[in-house]
Structures are given as structure tokens and as C-alpha cells.
């Protein structure tokens, strides 16, 4: 699980989301792999929302990114692992972790050019 979070944090920490004016949003899609039901999306960080949401974004912008990601995703990850009548089998868990990581990495709603630049900057930081 640490590897999953670290891969997300590596991307986010390249620019540390400097202010709420970035107007970003982050969706988490939770696939129901075994049951074949529709995917459920959870909006983690709102975009162009009411003032209380903007205040929430401003607080996030200055918090430690690692702590914030852990706090927001811990419950969601646990739900994924506990889907259905019992825990997921190992292969399913790996597939879901991979899917979750990819979904988060691609969910920052910036232009593809901006995202590519941020990914490049992340590589330069190391």
C-alpha cells in the first residue's frame, strides 16, 4: 500500500498544489470488478464549488500532501479491499490497486500538456 501512495505523492509533490485558484478536481473511480456493476465515482476535491469548499481547498493547498492523501484514501482503499461478501482474492486486490493508482494519477483535471510538464518536473526533482 505504501508503494501505491508514494507513486501518487511523487506526482503531486512536484508542484504541491500552490493555491485553491488552481481549480483542480480529483475523482476516484471505484470499479466493481467481480460483480460487473457500474463504476462509482467519488469527488475527493471539488472544483468551482461553494465558499466552504474553496476554504477546504485552501487548507489542503498548505497541508502536507502525504498526510492528506493518506487521510482521504485510507477509508476508500479499505472499502475496495472489503468489496463483496468477503475480502478480495490476492489477484483481484493487485488489479484494483493498479486501477486505483492509475485513476488517481490521471484524474487531475489539467490539460494534458500541463500534466506532462508536471510529470517531467517530477522526474527532474529526483
Brief rundown of the structure:
By secondary structure, this protein is mainly alpha-helical. Helix content is 56%, strand content 9%.
Annotate the secondary structure layout.
Blueprint: H1 2-12, E1 26-30, E2 40-45, H2 51-61, H3 65-81, H4 90-106, H5 112-125
Antiparallel strand pairs: 1-2
Helix pairs in contact: 1-3, 1-4
Q: Overall 3D geometry?
A: globular
What strand line-up does the widest sheet have?
Answer: 1-2
Bin the strand percentage. 5-15%
Largest sheet: 2 strands, antiparallel
Low-pLDDT residue intervals, each spanning 5 or more residues: 13-48, 56-63, 105-111, 122-126
What's the structural domain tally? 1
How large is the count of helical segments?
Answer: 5
Report on the architecture of this protein.
8% of the residues are buried. The chain has one domain. Strands 1-2 form a two-stranded antiparallel sheet. The protein has helices at 2-12, 51-61, 65-81, 90-106, 112-125; strands at residues 26-30, 40-45. 56% of the residues lie in helices and 9% in strands. With 126 residues, it is mostly helical.
What characteristics describe this protein?
9% strand; disordered C terminus; 126 residues
Amino acid at each position: 500500500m505504501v508503494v501505491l501512495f508514494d507513486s501518487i505523492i511523487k506526482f503531486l509533490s512536484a508542484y504541491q498544489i500552490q493555491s485553491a485558484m488552481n481549480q483542480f478536481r480529483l475523482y476516484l473511480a471505484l470499479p466493481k470488478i467481480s460483480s460487473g456493476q457500474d463504476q462509482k465515482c467519488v469527488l475527493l476535491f471539488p472544483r468551482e464549488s461553494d465558499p466552504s469548499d474553496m476554504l477546504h481547498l485552501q487548507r489542503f493547498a498548505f497541508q502536507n500532501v502525504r498526510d492528506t492523501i493518506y487521510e482521504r484514501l485510507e477509508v476508500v482503499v479499505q472499502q475496495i479491499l472489503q468489496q463483496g461478501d468477503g475480502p478480495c482474492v490476492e489477484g483481484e486486490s493487485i488489479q484494483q490497486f493498479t486501477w486505483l493508482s492509475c485513476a488517481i494519477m490521471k484524474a487531475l483535471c489539467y490539460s494534458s500538456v500541463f500534466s506532462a510538464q508536471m510529470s517531467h518536473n517530477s522526474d527532474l526533482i529526483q
